[in-house]
Request: fold
Amino acid sequence: MFDTLTDRLQAIFDKLSKRGVLTEQDVDAALREVRVALLEADVNFRVVKDFLARVRERAVGAEVHRSLTPGQAVIKIVHEELLATLGEGGKLDLGGPPPRVILLVGLQGSGKTTTAAKLALHLRKQGRRPLLVAADIYRPAAVLQLQTLGKQINVPVFAESDQAPPDIAQHAIRQAVQSALDVVIVDTAGRLQIDEAMMQEVEQIKARVRPAEVLLVADAMTGQEAVNIADTFNKRVGLTGLILTKVDGDARGGAAISMRAVTQVPIKFLATGEKVDALEPFHPDRLASRILGMGDVLTLIEKAQQQFDEQQALDAAEKLFNARFDLEDFLAQLRMVRKMGPLGELLNLLPGMREVTRQLSPDVTERQFKRIEAMICSMTPAERHNPDMLNASRKRRIAAGSGTTVQELNQLLRNFREAQKMMKQLSTNPRMRTMLGLVQRRRPR
Amino acid sequence: MASLRETLARTRQSFFGKVQALLGQSNITADTWDTLETLLLQADVGVATSTKLLERLHQRAKAEGIVRAERLHEVFKHELRALLESPPHATPPSWEKTRLLEVILVVGVNGSGKTTSIAKLAHWYQQRGRKVLLAACDTFRAAAVDQLQIWGERIGVPVIAGPPNGDPGAVAFDAVQAAFARKADLLIVDTAGRLHTRHNLMQELRKVHGVLRRAVHEAPHHTLLVIDATNGQNAVAQARGFTEAVGVTGVILTKLDGTPKGGVAFAIAGELGIPIHFIGVGEQIEDLEPFDAAAFVESLFE
Reply:
């Protein structure tokens, strides 16, 4: 199985003669793979068709001749077209007389309530004074959920019982004016776009509150239906932006392309976790790479850079690939992992790495980590570099010195050898080499 | 853009309805096959499963000398149904009391509809004479416990809950004790929504599973994964992830009211061998139906 589109295309172009020029047939062969990749990423079928037509038009012709390798050329065009389709990330437009209203709409379970709280926190951090409005009177405890979240982030929540959602929203604005709050975030009930009564209700809410922003909150895992959801909501309430949620999972997020294609409104935020601060601005290049299965290399680098400096990163990467991997490195890696969160999560951002990470990052709890650290720190530098020299006497000394047992030490050594073996395999993996090349090229000078 | 929007508007009609229109007509052509693939893909059936289905249909068409589209239509339905019915143990959980205490663990990603499905499930069993108890093990999400408790009050089913941010394993344990004490014969355990890629949260789920297993013989007797039918191919990854962690025995497909969708059920049944047990078709408490492969396939063709 090929994991990534890049691999697939490589396989195709390997079969072709080294002409350096792409014929129509070559492009079509490549685009068949692109099509599968896009479909697997849940991009809507019609959108894919339209998209491929544009790529084909660009690919068959002059641009391809100038390129270095045919595979790169096609990937580049596909990537560029994807970026064009995804557009730039949009910012909230909250200028004008306060209070400005943000209306959140979407299907059940897309994450509106959590997103409302995240937005409120985001705005509060920017010095705005938000008011959250609980206009979901249908789902049991939805109001309570928003109130609980409001308490967590210290943002007032407006709720009224025995009122219709359009009235609640309107009353909330009055409240905001009285309390001198300048942004009103209205959390509405989840609704299917084909539920006529509920769609009328959201139209009424909109008419009453005249929102500056109408944001569709959509699950990144949405399938082909994404086009109909986005299209209907857009037609009924005139969207100004999209928020893609649950992006921290492994969904490719092709729905974003579908929704952009039909609505043409910008993606304004990505929700990337369950915590109230897990809201990020949208980067089209990252999502494009993810949709194509090229891995979110940029995010990985950025995440790593936040935690340790570039040189360290480069050293670590080099060690990783040169398989010069001793207990010092093992310890350093464990320490790094502790700082950055599980290594598995990081490596999962890279394509084709899931299996590897499963074996590479044994579950190390905080307690275990301390014991491992103690054991390695009880070794001499020579022992750390060359664990093979650990005989029974040395092992007894280390166990005694670290307050552990020889059995534990043996277990550690077994784990270490597994990791070492994995590193060797990685270093001989051509894909990893390419990826390292990619990583280095993309680093800011 | 206008043309794209128009095209999209056209696809809003039932995808499989178009299969019927297409197949109802005449002899099989190359177009027939192309359109079939398009239709499968648009229903979220997925590339791999669509390809497999079509290859099999090709073989049968050839081996059986099928030339008329009407006949292909029948064979196609049959294949779709066979795929859904292919998982072993495809029988849904029975409503008959088979043991002292039966335990159903319900899992899924955030927002898939677990809590609502559990309320419906509890109601469904209660209507059939079972004595049901609910365990609110979603101690993480704000007001999740309250949501289940409100449902519990509405349908008259007691809910065992713990403190917010408490240990879900402890709540599960307490619920089992309570179930024995109250002589309940069915315990349904709600869990916090979690993405299958979150290692620590999946570990937590394993722990709840482990607590149940130790507390009741062979529990949980069913581990049901709740999947949002509007999800695309990631639903397969969800099914795989949860199966690895806690051995999913069946799926509840939610949000199936509305346009034909949920084609990912074919991939889940076909690729992972996990049967669909229930479907959620609305927001009301009665809106849960046992899965019927034949009816599911038929409804896709309407």
